[in-house]
Every structure is written in structure tokens, then in C-alpha cells.
Design a protein that fits this description.
With about 675 residues, the protein is α/β, with parallel strands linked by helices. The protein contains 22 helices and 23 strands. Strands 1-9-8-5-2-3-4 form a 7-stranded parallel β-sheet, sandwiched between helices. A 6-stranded mixed β-sheet has the order 10-11-13-12-14-15, sandwiched between helices. Helix 13 links the parallel strand 8 and strand 9. The longest helix is centred in the first third of the chain and has 17 residues. The protein is globular, with a radius of gyration of 28 Å. The termini are far apart. Pfam families: Dak1, Sigma70_r4_2, Sugar-bind.
Length: about 675
Amino acid sequence: MPMRFGDDALLWAAWLYYEDGLTQGEIAQKMGLSRASVNTWLADARARGLVNIEIQPEKFRAVALSRALKEHFGLQDCLVIPSEGGAMPLIERLGQAGAMALKRLVRPGDTLAVTWGRTVLALADALHHPGLADIRVVQATGSTTARIPWTPEACASRLASALGARWIPLAVPAIVSSPAVRDLLMQEPVLAEQLQVLGEASRIVMGISSMRPESTIHSSGFLEGIDQRSHYQDAVGSLLGRFISARGELVSGPVNDRTIGLDLAGLRAISQKIAVAGGMDKVAAILAALRGGYIDVLITDAATARGVLTADGWQESPRRNSPDPVSPAAARGYGKKLINAARDAVDESLAGALLAHENLIAPVPGTGRAVMAQQGPRPGKVGIVIGGGAGHEPGFWGYVGRGCADAAVIGNIFAAPPPGPILAASRAVHGGAGLLYIYGNFSGDVMNFDMAREMAEAEGIAVRQIVTCDDIASSSPDSRASRRGVAGNVFVFRIAGAAADQGASLETCEALARRAASRVYTMGLALEPARLPDSSRPGYSLGPGEMEIGVGVHGEPGEMRHAMVPADDAADLLLDRILAEMAPARGDRVAVLVNSLGATPAMELYILNRRIRQRLKAHGVSVSHSLVGPYYTSLDMEGVSLSLLHLDDDLAALLDHPCTTPALQISPPVK
């Protein structure tokens, strides 16, 4: 052996292999040894502890979650990828993972059915696996609107090309104008032949659609002209253009008898159902599909996997060899709360808030969960109505008053307010210039505020709506409309209220609030999850040396688990994600909200604020408005969220406008 390697050949072989990345053959040639010797030394290096291979925690969690999903739902197989991975969007990464899985699963002679959607098309684009004999790829449904690139024929034809397979289309629309037209087409011999091939499918590759407005089922045209609330209000997702409830059962409606393609009974009969879907907006839909028995192999991401498991009552087991073991007595399983009865907590809390701020807010007559500004409606002024679930105090009643909202409607804890109180609040603050509704992007809020809008418009009240989507952890940038609305709400309420107080028209108030909503970004982390009053138990568990990154404000877990870090590093984790997406230029201005999620004390918030201001200054971004405190909480969660509003001259001026509410007081500028 050459002397330049010293006396410890095993050490040098390990270094060349694990650090320099040489192959065993290259090491053997370089060191003048046989390849067998190198192989033996490398194994010995690991056995003696000279080399310690450590799996990255995020990847370990993905493996653990995959096993948990497989066991909990009785799946044939499951692949869970990390929720983050460089600059590539989640849809493309899921497509790559799906392509990897399909290479392992597909066999010569298979008839492979294919649905449509963004993720299915990404899978087809990522796949290259020709050479299998006698493969057929058949569309699972007829064709959809050509306004989208991920049509059934595009997904099926590209997948067939990637496999070198024969493509069998369904040469009809997926949805036709009437059941009679469907029955007539089903009698056509060509379609009957194609449907026979579909009935012979041994596997199916499918996406899963949520019911969000920007989801595949909406963009594909299935619900055009259909009142979703009247016919599909119980649906949480869609497979093959068929709608399913939270229990995985078919939700019947006018589309069912007009759809041509595989139905849910036919789907269940296929021996291997491969679903590729991810993103927190799809948790309910994926869980419903699992409960209905429509998935055998699932490819998803870690955050979605944990969301699905948690929503079905799964409790994460602590990992073995935890570096910071704690006794059961020290573990925070239960929380102590100063309440009377859990069922009365929201009403009693709101009653106390009205008494504490009786000079600013008053109850809306005839309701128990709506408050309005004491000053009442002003003739000719646009009314701003906000709302959402309880548990976010001082949201939402804390932002009612001069220069902000005119009314707020409160639901149960983490639950949307019903349409009735929203309509009552709308009537109470209507000054003749119309109303602007502002609320977070949660399915219940979207549905109930939309119903209230329709009822208000039937009474002749003009209503516009802003749905906030500032939580960057809940969806990728290319699916921003799927994101949750969280603490960034505070800035949007403020902008809209200031514009209305200055006498702006409904159209102008809407445009300014929409601009603010599109320019605000929020990212949160938790050290301990929130505990609901009725159980005093957390929705998920965190170890003493762990924190959750990307948490929601309704008790949702985050997108990743992270080791505890000092305050400066925690601030960097939040700020770096926001700056990467906001992409401000040097000289730009922002408004900053360092927000306690409930139990984080002021001392810690100000430590974080100090670091955030340091980083923004180094980035060349100035801070012209700053809020630090519990502005939008999640019950007793120990955690923090950071919101940045990317300012322009109009938005900055509106933030300076005087405001007097229970949670915000902005004085007129001193002249």
C-alpha cells in the first residue's frame, strides 16, 4: 500500500468512500488493493464505529410515517417523501415519487387505468420505463375541458408513451348534458369496446381532488352550473369525478348520472389502486378515500401523511433512544384551564370581552356571537365584516372599531360561524355603500360566508369578499389559493378598515384589501401544541427537544418536525422561508407582526423581534410598521408566527391611518 495513506488503511478507505465519494473499485485501484479487501474494510469500519451513518431526521420521519400509514389503513404499500426539497414544487416531486413507485409496480401484460390532474400529469412527465410487453393504458373517464393541460387524454397518452404502451382513450366527454345523453352514448359500440378494456384494468394510477375552488374537480368543469352547497355540501373530495363524503361514501347529486367512466364500485374492484396526492388542502379528501377502501398504494408527502393520520386519531409513538428522555409525570399530556364548563367557554369569553371594551364594541342585536362597533353604521361608508372560529382571541372581536372592522362574527372553537349571525351583522352595519367580507381560507368559513353573501344580496345589499391565504407552509407557491388564512388577517383587516374609514368605494376597498392579502406572508412554529377546552389534551405530541415548523392555527401539525434551536435560529427558519417567496428588493419596506400563538411570553417575542429586525436590515429591507404580541392566537399553543406585509405607498399610508379597537390603537400623527 502506498505510504501516503499512512498506517491505517481502514481509515483511509472509509474516508475515500464516504467523504470523497469514490467507488470501491476506484479505491482498490488507488490504494493498490483488491476490491474484496476494500469491501471488507468498509464493513469493518461501520462495525467498529469508525463510520457512523446517521439518517436525516426528516427522512426518518418519512419512513416512520410510511409504515404508520401502511399499518393504520392496511395498505399494500406506501411511499412518503419529505414535504420540502429544494426549489422543485411539491406536485413535481410527488410526480417523481409516483414514477419511481410505478416502475416497481407495473408488470408486462398489465392494463393500467389512469385518471387526470396536475400530479398525475407530473408523474407521466417524470416516467420513462419502456420495454415492458403487452401494456395497455386506458383513460378512466372521458375527456374534460381543454382549458387545462392535465386532461384525461393528456395524462393517459403521456403515460402510455413513457411506458411504450398502447393507449386506449374514452372517445366521449367525461360529463355530458343529461342522463339521457349518457345512456345514448353508452350504447355506441366503440365506447362499449373501450369501456370493456377499462373493466379489465389490473391497476389504476389516480389523483385525488379536494373541494377547494381551485381544485382539479372545479378546473375540469365538473361543477359548472352546479350549486355545490345544495347538492355536494357533504363532499370532502373527488375520485374519478365522483364525490365522496368524509366516510368515503358516494355523495349523490346531479353530476353522477351524467358522468362517463369508471365509477366507485368499479374502482374498488381493481386489484391495485395507486393514489398520488399531497398538500395539506387534500388531507380530508385523502382520508376519505382511505376510509372508503379506494387506495392500496399511497404516495404522499410527510406533512400530509401526518395530517391524515392525526385526523384519524393516530397517536405518534415516541422514538427509541430519545436524547432527552422524560418521565411520564413530567410529560405535558394534559393542560389546566381556567374555565367553567367547556360548552360555555366561547360565550362566557365573548361576554367578558364585551364588558371589558364596552366603550368600543357592542353585541349585534338578536345574536349571541356577533359584535359591532359602538359608533354604529355610518351612512355612505362601506361596512367591513370579519369573522371565524373562536380560539384566536383577540381575533376577531379585537379588530372591531373606528379605522378597522365594523362587525365580527364568532363561531365555536376553530369552527366557522353560521350564516345567520353573519347576515345579522351585515344588516346591522350596512350604511348603504355595500359590505366587504374578510375571512380566512377554511372550508366552513368559505361556505358560510358565501351563503350569508347570497342572502344579503337577495335583500339588496352589495357584498364583496376577500379570502385570506397567507400561511405559506400550508401549500406551495403555485397553489397559493389553497393556503390557510392566519395571522396575516390582521394586516388585511387594517387595510380594508382604514380605506373604508377614509370613504373609499366598495370597489376600492376590495382592491386595496385584495392587494394586501396578496402581499402578506406568514410562517409559524410551535414548541407545544394547543389543547382544546373540552379535553385539555393536545392534538399531537412533541418531545422535549423538538419543535413543529409550519403549524396551523386550528391545532394542525406542521410540515416538519425540527430539533429545538436557539431563538435566533428559530427566527431565521421563519424569516428565510418568507423572504425566499416574497423576494423583496433592497430598499423595500415591510410591516412586521411577531405574533404569540397563545402561551409564548412577551420576553421571547421581543428576542425574536430583535433577530428579525437584524436580518431585515442586513437584507436591505426597512420596517415601517411593527406589531409584537398576542394578536392572533391558537388557544394555549406555545409558539410564534411571523407575518410580513410587503408594503407599497398606498398600503403604508393606510397602516398609518388612526385606528381604535380593543386590540389595535393607532393615534393620529403628531403635527
